[in-house]
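queue> holo job accepted (flavin-adenine dinucleotide)
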Amino acid sequence: MTTYTAPLRDMRFVLHELFDAPTKLTALPGMEDASADVMDAVLDECAKLCEEVLFPLNQTGDQVGCTIKDGAVTTPPGFKEAYAQYAAGGWCGLTASPEFGGQGLPETLDCLVAEMIGSANLSLGLYPGLTQGTILALSALGTPEQKKTYLPKLIGGTWQGTMCLTESHAGSDLGLLRTKAVPNGDGSYSVTGTKIFISAGEHDMVENIVHLVLARLPDAPEGSRGISMFLVPKFFPKADGSPGERNAVAAGSIEHKMGMKASVTCVMNFDGAKGWLVGEAHKGLAGMFVMMNKERLFVGGQGLSQAEVAYQSAAAYAKDRLQGRAATGPARPDKPADPIIVHPDIRNRLMFARSIIEAERALTVWTHMNVDIAHHHADKAARQQADDMVGLMTPIVKAAGTGFGSEITNACLQAFGGHGYIREHGMEQLVRDVRITEIYEGTNTIQALDLVGRKLGIEGGRLFKGWVARVNDDLKRVEGRNDLADFSGPVKDAVKRLADCTEWLNEESKRDPNAKGAAANEYLRLFALTVFAWIWLLTAEKAIANKSGDGFYAAKLDVGRYFMKRVLPQTLSLDAIVRSGSTAMMALAEAAF
Ligand SMILES: Cc1cc2nc3c(=O)[nH]c(=O)nc-3n(C[C@H](O)[C@H](O)[C@H](O)COP(=O)(O)OP(=O)(O)OC[C@H]3O[C@@H](n4cnc5c(N)ncnc54)[C@H](O)[C@@H]3O)c2cc1C
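queue> job finished
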């Protein structure tokens, strides 16, 4: 069986010690309530819900899955009740505006809540997870009437939202989508088309489902500039706010998938369904990005959440499973064999997992703190600076969080040997479940292209330069400190390597149009590992300052040193691969494949 205990100690370290989040957040207008006590109480409550209610349903959810009959979807046993408990606890509106019933708490806190929920039950967590994007999009772009009608229900959790983008011929390239919206002459539109792969498109957990649908108006220009966003409810709200008549939208079928079987994925048919424009005509893609930017960070957290459960489960198994003897002589002479944790390979897998997980968690929190600063800071320049960091780190949090999430769940499955491959231990579920996170919300390649193609290019590299300046400030602060030399030296080298490689790539792409596409994935990994190295430097600084405490800080230093010695050197080969250019992969004639 997999095991999961919410990593509250590490979460508190990151929040309070590493980033001093409560002090910084409570200083922001509108965030005054986000005190350390409030944040700790929320984390404690969430941990309880995750460990006691959501986690016990994870394996049966996978085994039973969702079913569809006559267009109605049934979720696995216990899911409806567990979700009701989740909604009643106010979790759907943690960060939403108090004006519509939300709690107005920081995104910084929400990302840790989302991580715990994902670890406990990735499938269940996706239903309300997507609704967060709907809340955000309607809050930013909805009319006062739309906000009044829909936000309290979505925030209260009695209704949920979906994101209807993908069509069979339009996935990464949404400019190809064909769903039509024709004006009815009364301010509403008639939406017709078929969307595929729609998470939570139809199910039995809530009274009503609010679809945000991308479609084309009759006068729409070709491509992504001709897309608009429409709100299409499953049931039209009655005057008293309760669900009324059924709209012409229905699930045609559900997908049979590799993992996340308790999260329903639907083909949705819109047959002249009545909808209303959200935001401006032909600006739907920009509106959708309001939603997608939040969801991309959320999906990065999903990858991290699976890595955490895999690590915890493998660490527990490795201390228990007896096979072979330690190379240094029997560690447990009283037993027929030693626990496999004595073997360097098993330790290597666990240390790799931990060195990435802890850095990723810290990066996720830091990025979300920047989201809060970008939304709430009184000073425009501070908001811009924070927004730059969010823009730069979003593809990294998404793609590295999920890419390493897959790698770590696989590495931890291997620690179980054959038992990892067998269903009852639950490890193979983690490997299957996490895999989609590398694909949806824009594949990881699309994230990498966003980083190299768009984010690096903004205003002559302003975002990249801003982050490098921040790291250099940190390096300056610790200059001359021998106790941090194991960290500061490798960080300095890695940042220089990344900066040189970035410059090379920018130059090469002027010569070779395929250069960025060829380098994107490796470049993103190089960038992510360099960011993690910086995070480990900050972590080590705090750990040394507090080392008189319990073994927690000593462990931080051990894990950080492991990262510097065993993981960061990957950047040397990644740099070489990026610089190899595109010819190696483009030379072979298409017919020869
Ligand atoms: C379980 C599940 C849930 C989902 N939930 C939702 C949802 O709720 N709402 C929704 O709208 N969609 C959803 N999706 C769809 C998902 O977002 C898409 O599958 C994803 O964006 C990729 O699109 P595609 O499958 O058409 O692949 P394609 O776009 O056809 O891509 C195929 C391959 O080509 C690569 N590729 C494509 N374009 C480029 C390029 N320009 N440069 C380099 N490589 C490229 C991709 O990286 C990929 O490897 C879901 C999918 C699944 C499987």
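queue> The first strand starts at residue 67 and ends at 69.
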